[in-house]
Specification:
Helix content is about 40%, strand content about 25%. By secondary structure, the chain is an alpha/beta fold. The protein folds into 3 domains: about 140 residues, no CATH class; about 100 residues, no CATH class; about 45 residues, no CATH class. Strand 4 and strand 5 form a beta hairpin. The chain is elongated. The relative contact order is 0.08.
Length: about 325
């Protein structure tokens, strides 16, 4: 397997979001235990294109060697582009834990002073907004934060820091709408900044959990509809209305156009098959003689006469 050295972080470099990531605050334990290389921060097993080795700090840099999975054709192609100099960028995926870990430095630039490294990706443009991904943790999962969410977090961190720089009390004044949204006591619009931060994180976690539950309900409803569709089609196959070899096509028709399916299939008269008459299990396998005909009940005799007039006349000759 080929190896290539990358810079995963330069703590002196301000990223596109407007803050630096301090190496001294990076928690690497989980990353070193599972040092996956992802393709551009994509999720899923197929996105793993290799592993990182020799993860170490060198001055202001966090570096590592990329070992690509040459047995994977896609990973091998990424490795070729790295070798030929077409891909040179790497990017960290971090969990910043809390907004309080964004702290303003003497040069008026925000530093992320504590965070956990979750993964590192190979990216085409290391200095754009995708050169660093932030994640928010909940009890159930790790949720990737969108760029707009990161901007809001930084804005809130800036407001809290600015407020605390000018006030000895760790309080922040919120609008009534924000107080209600965060579930804080409505007796006052002034609240402890740490409580505000904790409630924001909890609100994000609750939102993720609610969205997951909604998706679960939607999937359950989808499964129920799929089962109902299959049951209807199977009933029509059993009734002899459609060919069993076309089951998949009719399931698709019912799923997309249930009304059309009902009018053209379900409401269609049942084809009478006297050799397997449902209403008369004792009916003979075939009607080849008048004796066979006489064994049918009156309804079956009438159906035979109406559906097979030539056969009926032949029986009477």
């Amino acid at each position: 397997m080929s190896k290539h050295k990358f810079v995963l972080n330069d703590e002196n470099q301000v990223n596109q979001y407007g803050f630096r990531v301090r190496n001294g605050g990076l928690e690497l334990s989980r990353f070193k235990a599972n040092p996956v290389i992802l393709d551009y921060h994509r999720d899923g097993n197929a996105a793993v294109i290799g592993r990182w080795e020799n993860i170490q700090f060198e001055g202001s840099l966090l570096t590592a060697e990329a070992v690509f999975d040459d047995a994977d054709p896609y990973a091998k192609e990424i490795a070729r582009k790295v070798t030929d100099g077409f891909l040179r960028g790497a990017s960290l995926g971090l969990n910043p834990y809390s907004m309080s870990n964004f702290q303003i430095a003497p040069d008026d630039v925000y530093d992320l002073v504590k965070s956990e490294v979750l993964e590192a990706s190979v990216v085409p443009i290391p200095n754009n907004a995708n050169a660093l991904k932030l994640y928010a943790s909940s009890d159930e999962s790790m949720q990737e934060l969108q760029e707009t969410e990161v901007s809001k977090i930084l804005l809130m961190a800036q407001e809290i820091t600015t407020f605390n720089l000018h006030n000895n009390m760790k309080k922040i004044n919120l609008s009534l709408a924000a107080v209600i949204a965060l579930g804080l006591p409505q007796t006052s619009t002034e609240h402890d900044s740490e409580a505000v931060m904790n409630n924001i994180i909890k609100l994000k976690s609750d939102l993720d959990a609610a969205n997951a539950k909604i998706q679960g309900f939607e999937q359950l409803e989808s499964d129920k509809k799929a089962k109902l569709t299959a049951d209807i089609v199977d009933a029509d196959i059993k009734a002899g209305k459609i060919d069993a070899t076309k089951r998949a096509d009719f399931i698709k028709l019912h799923a997309e156009f249930p009304t059309l399916y009902k009018s053209t299939v379900t409401d269609m008269p049942v084809k009478t098959n006297l050799s397997g008459n449902v209403n008369n299990p004792s009916a003979p396998a075939e009607v080849n003689s008048l004796d066979d005909f006489q064994k049918l009940d009156l309804t079956a005799q009438l159906n035979f006469k109406e559906t097979n007039p030539e056969g009926y006349r032949a029986l009477l000759k």
